[in-house]
Amino acid sequence: MKEIEKIVEAYRQTDWTKEKAALGVVVRVEESSYRRIGARMFVRSSGLWTGGISGGCLEGDALRRAQSAINKNEASVVVYDTLEDDEHQIGVGLGCNGRIEVLFTPVDPEANNQIKYLESILNTRSPLCLFQVIKSEDPHLLGKFFHNESGITPIPESRIGTLEALVQEQGKSRIFSESEMDILVEVIRPKIRLICVGDNYDILAMVDIANELGWEIHVAGKRKKLQKPIFEIADLVYDLEQVREIETDDFTALVLMTHDYKKDFDLLKHFIDDDIPYLGLLGPKKRRDKMQKDLMEEGLYIDLSKRENLFSPVGLDLGAETPEEISLSICSEIVSVLRNRSGGRLKNRIGPIHERD
Asked: Which of 173, 188, 203 is a domain's end point?
């Protein structure tokens, strides 16, 4: 979502009386690739570009392809194939060993273009689907994007609903062949919402890393104790008592880090039965065990060790020592949990790094 936000901002800043633009989108990937389906690159006729479709090895050629889309005012699909040792292929010799297809489309600021739609869903808290024609014999259809509220679409509305339900259930983007067209149904997920509960100096380290990752950041604590940069970076800052009123969803991570046993204990009781996918509790295992004992004494027979959404001690085992390293450990664990990954070393992973599209 951070890349989409940057592209939307670049779109807003474009002077359309002086410039034109094109959008490049990775629409198909085979084998290995640094970026996956949905990676985007917004290119202006001035040569300025935002986003990326690779680790840097393809952007130079992509810039030229985007300029061609602008000049011809037509969409095209470009294949970058590094599976074979073809000296004429862009990217050969870089060790990518993959094949990616990139759709380049001119951007019409007067039309209901894809970037306008992405801008309209920046703050959504539910996954949405974007449909795009990535292969068609009709040049007027290639590159056309639509969604379930577009009105006139290349395929029946009932079919749109069926495909969207299937993709949402699987949780990943897919390509379908429909009416002599290949249509990419891309899942656009909300940004991760991080709720940091506490007001000590280590909160700033968490906020800094989350901000770099493009997350939505909430901080709950005593305003007088919070460092000034937090108010500039965080999306929302509120009093500790208000955190109980916050709405959580499938893309929310809440970390209790007040360094106050009673506060953390009371908030743990409040959130333990919530459907929040990630509930982090700062501190050693013996602190969690004490809370387990205190819960039992209050007549709450909750086995904290068996709560899959409770992470205590919080974070991955990085040997972290400083607030910044600890924050890195916590944020890394949050990513692994919300992406349903183990958080282990990639060199020990059996199979590809990414699921094949």
From this structure: 188
